[in-house]
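re: ur question from yesterday

yeah so i grabbed the chain u mentioned. its 50 aa long if i counted rite. heres the sequnce exactly as i have it in my notes:
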Amino acid sequence: MAKKTVATLQTSSKRLTKAIKMVKSQKSGAYTFVEAVMAPEMVNDWLNQK
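ran it thru and got these structure tokens back, copy pasting raw so excuse formatting
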């Protein structure tokens, strides 16, 4: 169901990751993209949640 893209972003002191997942809308059945910027350790948990 999910297409996932992960990009790594580096700032001066923190390492961040931008994750994008495709989510199907319950109302219309269309797919939307949800983006979030987080620490690399949290990406798998975020992608696995519904």
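noticed a couple things. Strands lie at 4-10, 15-24, 31-38. also The chain has a mean pLDDT of 83.
anyway ttyl
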